[in-house]
Amino acid sequence: MTAKAIQWLDDRLGLSAIRELMDHKTVPVHSATRWYYFGGITLFLFGIQMVTGILLLFYYRPTVAEGFDSVRFIMTRVEFGWLIRSIHSWSANLLIFVAFVHMFSVVLTHAYRPPRELTWASGIVLLGLMLGFGFSGYLLPWNQISYFATKVGTDVAAGTPGIGPSIARILRGGEDVGAPTLTRFFALHVMVLPLITVGLIAFHILLVQKNGMSTPPWIAASRVRHLKFFPNFLLREVMVWYGALAVLGVLAAIFPWELGEKADPFASAPKGIRPEWYFLAQFYTLKLIPSHVWIFEGELLGVAGFGVLAVGWALLPVWGVNRAGEARTRLVTGVAIVLIAYLAAFTLLGYIK
Q1: Among 24, 46, 112, 281, which one is least packed by beta carbons within 10 Å?
Q2: Residue 231, preceding bond cis, omega within 30 degrees?
């Protein structure tokens, strides 16, 4: 009976092809193999986000009148609701952090080289989507800090040269942050961004499967031994997931995510208002730029500069590779180290000052 059932499924789903693929898939084993785990951790944390987000959706009401109260109900009345909400918030932050680590590990191992340009491009778009999740989800509790942080964020978006005011109006659903903003952010957070992200993750994994895992250029590919993906590498990856889950559980239980006070648009902004840590370096940089630089407005110049930097970083496979298809290792590594130092230093300064 079991054999017939398996054969029936195999005829319709092509399970034998999947088994054959898993039998032949291997992972290079070398000094940088440990960095391969971060891609899997990112995927695992995204799965945690999906599961906890669905659980929160059972009780959350996306209106100005009920949004804050529904989150408070989840945290105080729903059994283990405080834990689910805390896991969702902490995993969101860990997800973005691990995504940044994964990106820089790809850069420092020069895994953007041909034929992996589309893998790099899809990964950069996925990182942008993760930041979009963070920005849109931050407003949903409708508390005082998230309300004013969203005002700051949309004001920065409004500073984009040319199209800034239109972007801000689309995000806010009007001229200021209010009920339409909450509705739009909710739709983005639970429908638009997840649909795009799931499709792009599938595309990203397909590219990784097609092109395999890259070997760093300083290691001769002919001298690298390989490990079977299933079950050897997969079991190691699962152990890493357990470790990530343990860290997440400790953070959520010992440092539960606070709710704060309900947003009051007529109140003054809380002292020291600032965006979440993953936008803090850019925020602090904009604070340092003078109001006018020559004939340009300082904020417009800063936003334009970040746009140029983002486009240049996305085009890494163009300027980071020579005509022979080999990585410009010194140039790319130097740029990556400078960018890491900038993000770390300015994020820390943004917290202190």
Answers
A1: 24
A2: yes
User: 231: which DSSP letter?
Assistant: I
How confident is the chain (353 residues) per 10-residue block, as mean pLDDT?
82 78 85 93 97 97 95 96 97 97 96 95 97 95 93 84 86 92 96 97 94 89 86 93 96 94 86 85 90 81 91 96 92 97 95 82
Q: What distance in Å separates the CA atoms of residue 270 and residue 343, rounded to the nearest whole number? A: 25
Helix ranges (DSSP H) in 140-289:
144-158, 164-172, 179-187, 193-211, 234-254, 280-288
Whether residue 130 is contained in a domain is answered as: yes
Query: First-to-last CA distance in the chain?
Result: 69
Note if the pTM is more than 0.85.
yes
Range of the domain at 73: 28-269
- What DSSP string describes 109-135? TTTTSTT-HHHHHHHHHHHHHHHHHHH
Total domains, the chain: 1
Do the domain assignments include residue 301?
no
Q: Could you give the count of Cα atoms lying within 13 Å of 166 in the half-sphere of its Cβ? A: 3
351 is a domain residue: no
Q: Is 255 helix (H, G, I), strand (E, B) or coil?
A: coil
CATH of the domain at 248: 1.20.810.10
